[in-house]
Give the backbone structure.
Amino acid sequence: MFCSHLRPLLPRLMLLRMTSTAACRTTEVKQLDLLEETLAFEDPKAFRVKSFGELLRALGVFRLCSFPVLVNNCGKLMMIARTILGRRGFSMLLRPTVYAQFVAGENESEISQSMEKMNLLGLRPMLAVPIEEDLGESTGEKRYDDNMEAMLECVRMSHSNAWSKDPMMQLKITALLSPELCVKLTTIITQQPYDLDLVVKAMDGEPIDFPGLDESEAAHFLCGLHRLNKIAEASVNKVRVLVDAEYTYMNPALSLVTMAMMKKFNKDGVWIWNTYQCYLKESRSLLLEALHISKEEGFCLGVKLVRGAYMDKERKLAEKEGQLDPIHNCWEDTNVSYNGSLDVMLKAISQKPERYRIIVATHNEVSVRKAAKRMEELGIDKDGGSVCFGQLLGMCDHVSLTLAKEGYAVYKSVPYGSVDDTLPYLVRRAQENRTVLQGIRKERDLLRKEFFRRMSLRGGN
């Protein structure tokens, strides 16, 4: 009886359900289309928050960066300028130009002024101590201890100043552990992997015998692990520490140490993060392996996703040693790698947002839009904490400012220190990011439009 009364209603109910589903899909499509339009990054209004002087400085610096001969030889040119002008004259030249564009300041007072302005723009700082080493540059335990103190000071500044919620900082392991040892460890663990528990025990101060290392190497490794442990202990529950990847000939050792830090300190939250370079052919497998290990070992995983910055050196080294090129064959393959790894992480986050985090560290507008679109599809909050975006200070502001305006969490990588301290860092970043620097035409054009808009307003007055 009940069924016979219900039967005539079934077609109507099915029609209503189909209409409702179609309406939901139409709304979703409209939202995604609106997202594409909002994040087109074509509007020079993003630069209206900049002062006239900042516009001029950015236009001048970016114009210089558009010349490959200047970018490729910036280290030599700066040394010549310093010799001719002297230390003081060189500092007076650089401070209001390149230094002011890419560096937050020398002392805490100057840094605070820069950070407070960023905070007003809705941007968050990710402080970066400009210290790193490569092969042949090792300087001894005293220097590494000094570097540790500088990083502990970075933790203190990031936490104690109310510059932003959820503060972050960057860390390079080669500032605390010799590159030579990292290379040897990489060779050893590719043949005989170290257990994460072994490294964690060493961090806790237990006397550990590391297979393959002699007495002095083992002692230095223990000292380096103790330094890293101090920084992690100081930062946990306060500041998120993003460990940078470097060269392939030492990355496995860096990842070993970073994963051990994660196992110890990421039990209940993501405080230690690792970096994955998507221009490497093995990047996707490394990320999937990290996801597997974090699940098996029961710790949270933080991922800084980058394309990579050491392409020229990696390729030259592979050719010199007769090895396969570790870099993807073309830019398109790197893009596929980056966007694919991004999707892997976003899916993991949508399922367990408390266990996984990612910073989408890129200046690539297409990848930024893909991330935002995928977040919308998966229902990931813009400012929920699990996904954030990152760009370098002084670059890609049209992307950073637009994202911040739309409610996304956006960090700027912020180096700080004196001209002398930051010069080697800036030279390396310029040479590593030469393709980015030479491809900032769009940002320069938007800056120019805003500049002429203001000039026309002045002329009208």
